[in-house]
Amino acid sequence: MTAFLTAPFPIRTVVIANRGEIACRIIATCRRLGLRTVAVYSDADAEALHVRLADEAHRLGPAAPSESYLCIEAVLAAARASGADAVHPGYGFLSENAAFVEACAEAGFIFIGPSADAVRSMGSKIEARRIAAKAGVPVVPGFEGAGASNEELIAAAERIGFPVMVKASAGGGGRGMRRVESAEALAAALASAQAEAGSAFGDDTVFLEKLIGAPRHLEVQVFGDGRGGARHFHERDCSVQRNHQKVIEEAPAPNLADAIRERLFASALKLTRAIDYAGAGTVEFIMEAGSGEPYFLEMNTRLQVEHPVTEAICGVDLVELQLRQAAGLPLNLSQEQIVTRGHAIEVRINAERPDCGFLPATGRFLDVVPPSGLRFDSGVAAGSEVGTSYDSMLAKLIAYGVDRDTARKRLIAGLEALAMPGVPTNQAFLADCLRADAFAEKTPTTAFLQEAFPEGWHPDANSLLRLRGRAAAVLIAASTDSPLHRTDGFRVTRPRRTGTVPLHVEDEYGQADLALCFGAGLSVESGPHSLALKDEPPAVWRQGELIHAVGEGLSLSLTARPLAEARLSARTEDQAAGQILAPLTGLVTKVHVATGDRVKSGDPLLEMEAMKLVHTLAAPFDGIVAKVACAAGDTHGAKTILIEMEEAA
Ligand code: ADP
Ligand code: ADP
Ligand code: MG
Predict the structure, then answer these.
(1) Ligand 2 geometric centre to CA of 217 (Å)
(2) Homologous superfamily (CATH) for 342-455
(3) pLDDT > 90? residue 301
(4) Nearest CA residue ID for atom 17, ligand 2
């Protein structure tokens, strides 16, 4: 490392023009190398982790990306004010913006990334396909007539053969893509892809590709010297995707013939050399499962989200290599020296509800406790707020092992141990993906989620019941001032008396009546199901009446009341009069009934989202809906009357 710092190393201070986990990850390498770090932030991120971690931080502007992380002038002003030498763009935001690369150079900063020309030519998928084809790289059969009329595109689609994929030339992040099954559907798909591309990327040019059915997504990590020299750092497989966005990534690609691997490397290096590429980049390919023929998809001229799996198997720090390259130092690695060892798998941890169509979630983390022994690249820590201004990826968890199955099992254990109470995340879903046969036993394709969860994902019913039971037991043991105190004398680990406590619990996955049974051991019953519970309490965090519990591979925010009391209050308090009140201030998301409907006790009437949880309000008795005083989309204050019911005559 000393060589890194000896004069005339031209980089002392690095501005990280990004946020979240990637800003934190870049700061970590800079710090290790003794470089000063400068964070930039929007008003939404004033307290964010990357701001806390950097040596210095500068405000860019309001939360909107166009006024902060995408505002070239604001980023350069921060760079000037901090006396920085270099700018690292991370991924997303300005990382693939050629004008930004040029503006950095004009302002006298080293841009840690490739040339503006490389960024510009690869930023156009149409141009990239042309350059790749010219360099002898097989591209997905398609039609890239820039400026082509819709008639020409329709004629081309007939030649390619349906189904086809309409893609935005400037696209990224899985957006601006439409699968089209027939000529009749093409005109509408073109229009909607063009509209989406225009508003998302400021360029509505689209092109066509043959749709590859259930393909594998393979990609090669490359590194260029800017003068036609290039190395590869082997391949990654990112076939597990949702909406064309990666969910799980691994390296090396499982079950891939060496001959195909060599073809991938040769193609990736041809393109990297053809554009005199400088620094780290990724050449992406798509391969019809079983075909053995990878086609070029696109090149990303930046650090990739999933770069840690490559770092794990190649034993390199790609951000360090980027810094060295930007500083003018040679890579000094022969291709033979770049070898892989073992297997690594990464999962993207998002603030979202996989059980509710992957609805993005918001809130504040009470805590963030990473599992020991695994790499955890996070943009959040205890106290971090997750808002709606930016995308929902919070962190990445990466496991390494001597082989794929070892890495897979470590990652599952890591996801189960990782505690992130306060904001719903997809961690239980990710663990189920890693457990699924289609991942563990087979070679995943982009159809993986459909195959593994044809009905959508829901938490395992037994795990859910067990965690509810264990969390409720903690509440009982701790609540000396509640009516539950009647179980005084009970301790979770060593119950002194036997008995059954019927409870009503509510959490983000719904509500349930269950009974905790204390006998020789602790068990939980719900309907006909009875499950033995571990003696030890789960990890819990208290927040007023809510208890956040992490265990059984799940995370819950739960309230519990004695069943009799819950029934009684449902009957007596507010609802005896048939008034269904908002339990908290929140958003009505669904109304299941209309005036005049006949409902049975327990039937769902409406759903509300409040305190980041979905609350289903149910009919307190058999009756008739007399009045619906709310609609989906309304926000109502706590205790507002939402529905009125009458007893059936
Ligand atoms: P990667 O390609 O690194 O595996 P993604 O494709 O998910 O990962 O992109 C990384 C990040 O950059 C995501 O936050 C994504 O939304 C964003 N992103 C990628 N390309 C673009 C683009 N052209 N415009 C805006 N955002 C983009
Ligand atoms: P982005 O810039 O948004 O990352 P890509 O061209 O890399 O766009 O495609 C993203 C994903 O969309 C691919 O990994 C693949 O799953 C899917 N995809 C893209 N093109 C095709 C195609 N021609 N056929 C089938 N799937 C495709
Ligand atoms: Mg891509």
Answers:
(1) 8
(2) ATP-grasp fold, B domain (3.30.470.20)
(3) yes
(4) 244
